[in-house]
Write a sequence for this structure.
C-alpha cells in the first residue's frame, strides 16, 4: 500500500488532486447548470473509518501512511509503473490491497460513499426536477456508483439514514466528529513519535 500512498501524495502521477471537480464546476458554469456537492461530509467518513479500526490497527495504518508520505528518491517510480498506476487495473489493485490489509475500512471509505453518491445523484434529479444529472466521481467510485444506480432503479433501497449517523442530531454529529478528529490527532502524534524513535534506534545499530 505504501507505493500507492507515496505515488499519489508526491504528485508522481502528474495528476492534480481534485482537478476533475474543478473542471466539472467550470463546465457547469459555462452552461448555467446548478452545481451540487454530492459527497458525504469528510468528517463523517473519517469518523466512521476511524471508529472501525481497533487501536493496534490505527497505529499500523499511521505508520504505513507516514512511510508512504516520507518516501525518498530511492522509491522513485519508473515511467512504466506510473502509467500502470493511472489505469483502472491499478485502481482495482489498490482497493483489493485495501480489502486485504484493512478490510474494516472498505465499508466506510468505499461502499458507503458509493451508496451516498448514488443517493445524491437520485436526490438531485428529484429535488431540482432536472431531466439530466451529470455526476463527476473519482475513478475508484465509478463502478460502485453505476452498479448501485442500475440495481436500485426504484430508489427504495437508498436510504439516507443508512449512510450517515441518522439517529444523531446535527449538533451531536459535530461533537462526535470533533472528538474523532481529536483522537485521530493524538494517535497520529503517538504513531509518528513511535516511528521516528524506531528509525533513530535503527540508525544507531
Amino acid at each position: 500500500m505504501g507505493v500507492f500512498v507515496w505515488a499519489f501524495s508526491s504528485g508522481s502521477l502528474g495528476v492534480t488532486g481534485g482537478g476533475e471537480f474543478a473542471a466539472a464546476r467550470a463546465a457547469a458554469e459555462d452552461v448555467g447548470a446548478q452545481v451540487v456537492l454530492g459527497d458525504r461530509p469528510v468528517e463523517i467518513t473519517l469518523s466512521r473509518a476511524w471508529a472501525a479500526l481497533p487501536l493496534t490497527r490505527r497505529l499500523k495504518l499511521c505508520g504505513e501512511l507516514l512511510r508512504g508520505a516520507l518516501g525518498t528518491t530511492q522509491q522513485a517510480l519508473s515511467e512504466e509503473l506510473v502509467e500502470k498506476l493511472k489505469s483502472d487495473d491499478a485502481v482495482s489493485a489498490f482497493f483489493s490491497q485495501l480489502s486485504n490489509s484493512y478490510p474494516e475500512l472498505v465499508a466506510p471509505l468505499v461502499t458507503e460513499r458509493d451508496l451516498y453518491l448514488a443517493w445524491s445523484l437520485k436526490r438531485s434529479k428529484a429535488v431540482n426536477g432536472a431531466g439530466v444529472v451529470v455526476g463527476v466521481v473519482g475513478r475508484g467510485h465509478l463502478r460502485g456508483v453505476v452498479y448501485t444506480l442500475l440495481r436500485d432503479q426504484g430508489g427504495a433501497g437508498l436510504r439516507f439514514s443508512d449512510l450517515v449517523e441518522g439517529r444523531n442530531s446535527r449538533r451531536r454529529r459535530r461533537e462526535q466528529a470533533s472528538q474523532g478528529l481529536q483522537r485521530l490527532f493524538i494517535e497520529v502524534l503517538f504513531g509518528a513519535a513511535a516511528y521516528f524513535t524506531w528509525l533513530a534506534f535503527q540508525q544507531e545499530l
